[in-house]
Amino acid sequence: DLMSYPVEETAWNGLVERLPRLPHALLFQGPRGIGKLALATRFSQFLLCEARAGNQPCGRCEGCRWFLDGNHPDYRLIQPEALAEEAADAEEGSESVESTSKKAKPSTEIKVGQIRALADFLYVGSHRGARRIALVHPAETMNLNAANSLLKALEEPPPGAIFILVTHAFGRLLLTVRSRCV
How far apart (Å, rounded) are the C-alpha atoms in residues 150 and 119? Predict the structure, then answer.
């Protein structure tokens, strides 16, 4: 559970200080395993919290409860199918070998269809009257078409949309995508 991971205080405070002038796209980059995804997830919850407790999400409001239950209507996690299945299997216990062998192998890339599906989410008003957040992890797994599709949204972001990209391989991201993020 990412919400139980501690986040590095200096990085957290730096994010919270940006709130008055929060950019539309943030890029969390660094080596694997240092807590980038936990930080990005926690910050997403903070942005969607409806009753912040100082500089932390309250954990009790309707926005936090939805977020913690994994079904906040203003939040999307975009990740490769293989990563999503891995997380689902970990939550539900592993499935039988028979049902796994009949399935097509899940993709290890973020595909263009996943990014295009964000348009329906991003270009419609927020369900809760606040921001809409798209967290892309790991961003370097976007195939070229997906990265170019995301670039289009990064260049002309809809009002209230926040993109958070998390990467372990900064150099594998398109330079144009990197240049649109803080």
Answer: 10
C-alpha to C-alpha distance for 146 and 127, rounded to whole angstroms: 26
Tell me the whole-structure pTM to 2 decimals.
Answer: 0.87
Residue 83 vs residues 18, 88, 107, 117: alpha-carbon distances, Å: 30, 9, 9, 18
pLDDT band at 98 (very low <50, low <70, confident <90, very high): very low
Between helices 62-69 and 36-48, what is the axis angle to 10°? 150
Here the tokens at position 151 are 């670039």
pLDDT given at position 93: 62
- Nearest to residue 111, comparing CAs of 148, 70, 75? 148
| Tokens read off for 22 | 């929060």
98: tokens are 């028979």
